[in-house]
Amino acid sequence: MSLTKQDRRQRIKYRIRKRLSGSDARPRMTVYRSNKQIYVQLVNDLTGETLISASSKEKEIASQKVNKIEQAKLVGKRIAEKAKEKGIDNVVFDRNGYLYHGRIKNLADAARKSGLKL
């Protein structure tokens, strides 16, 4: 029996999460990508809390009429700005089972350009 697309991504996600863990000094930057939106969170896995979040649903980003790749760049830039305000410079990037190309890659690159170390 072959795996569904969701089952395959879930297995990849578990394999990645075995090795990654976020702390207060270096939180985990996790990405969720839906068909229309993209969401990113900085998570402290030791306490189980979300430190910062950003998404393409925020008013500043949603009001701009751009394609999804440009939207991902704006979200990456926004999360980096919020992290700088909280004093976070280093993060561990969790691609959450998605392939590292397209929107995921552009989000990570935009966060790097804005000063976040992945």
Detail the topology: elements first, then pairings.
Layout: H1 5-19, E1 28-33, E2 38-44, E3 49-55, H2 59-62, H3 68-86, E4 92-94, H4 103-113
Parallel strand pairs: 1-4
Antiparallel strand pairs: 1-2, 2-3
In one word, what is the shape? globular
| The first-level CATH class name | Alpha Beta
CATH architecture: 2-Layer Sandwich
Query: Count of DSSP E strands?
Result: 4
Mean pLDDT value: 95
Count of runs of 4 or more consecutive helical residues: 4
What's the gyration radius in Å? 14 Å
Structural class: alpha+beta
N-to-C order of helices and strands: HEEEHHEH
Q: Give the strand line-up of the largest sheet.
A: 3-2-1-4
- Strand proportion, as a percent range, falls in 15-25%
Based on the structure, what is the oligomeric state of the protein chains?
single chain
Percent helix range? 40-55%
Q: Quote the CATH topology.
A: Nucleotidyltransferase, domain 5
Q: Summarize the main sheet.
A: 4 strands, mixed
User: What is the rounded distance between the termini?
Assistant: 37 Å
Integer count of domains:
1
* Contiguous runs where pLDDT drops below 50 for at least 5 residues: none
